[in-house]
What we know:
28% of the residues lie in helices and 28% in strands. The chain contains eleven helices and 17 strands. β11 and β12 form a beta hairpin. α1 packs across α10. The relative contact order is 0.12.
Amino acid sequence: MSKNFDDALPPGSVIGILGGGQLGRMAAAAATDLGYLTHIYCPDPASPAAQVTDRFSAKAYDDETALATFAEAVDVVTFEFENVPGPTAAFLAERVAVRPGPKVLHICQNRLREKGFCAEIGVPTTEYAPVQNRDDLEKVMAAFSTPAVLKTTEMGYDGKGQVLLDGKIGPAEAWAGMAGGKTELEGIVEAYVDFQLEISVIVARSQGGEIQAYVPVENRHKNHILDQTIAPAEISTKVAAKAQEIAHTIAESIKLIGLLGIEMFVTQSGDVLVNELAPRPHNSGHWTMDACLISQFEQFIRAVTGLPLGDPERHSNAIMHNLIGEDASTWRNILSDPKAKLHLYGKSEARPGRKMGHVNKLSSKSD
């Protein structure tokens, strides 16, 4: 069936990207390959995306004068991380198309809203409870079995803002550990999941409702940071189909226009539980840059510009390994392996826990 994409942005159009990290950098490179220009809006002028974009605005996210000028200079706006302030997205949406829209951003910025949304559409998650203060936490800790996890509802990632409730720590200490000195914040306690493995699915949805999902992959963490992604995950056909069904359901129900990374647990009994949603390219999708004809970044650009989506089928299996901190200093050794594809993010300073790049190693699908 032929597709009508007369409303697609033509080559030469300008894609505005909120955020200047490595995801924005790789998205901008994919946009260039399709003939688009990019305009990065980010308060940090030394961000990785600044090195590859056509235009850059180093302005604050609450600078409405700068935002209005940015909106006039671009043809569509997207974002490369979900911690863009909600009012910023709403302000821009009044002036230019924002994809995914502010509603998607609003849901995905908050773990309680994510869990509530999943419950509304019948997608299973782990048991959870909101906590507003230490008194709330004390009551919830008494009701939940240990271990459990206390998390901030917003902003936490790579293990930040998370505390393991293992029965050895009290409510006051746990709350202080999560808060990190902040006085006004909300928390969520999530029940421990006895899982076989953690997986994720990257799914795209176009303006016309077309949906394409990549194969489920396994994610292995070290010190709460993604260390390796293995594509495809070693799971049954039934479990893989369930994970992709969940991805399709969420993408359709949330009315996604863009890309969504969905982190999931596979339990010992083979159930699939959603953990978190990320409405942009995802670290666990970096393997697609070399193992698929259409990478997650090209798919992202296709979705937000109105182009038809590409085929997400992989031509190879892959293992993606993150380069954290000083890992990137081994680039000579990495390049000495003719089967290793190195991607560095152009960050000037290697700090502990900082993602500096990644390496993809491919193998035959028959291996």
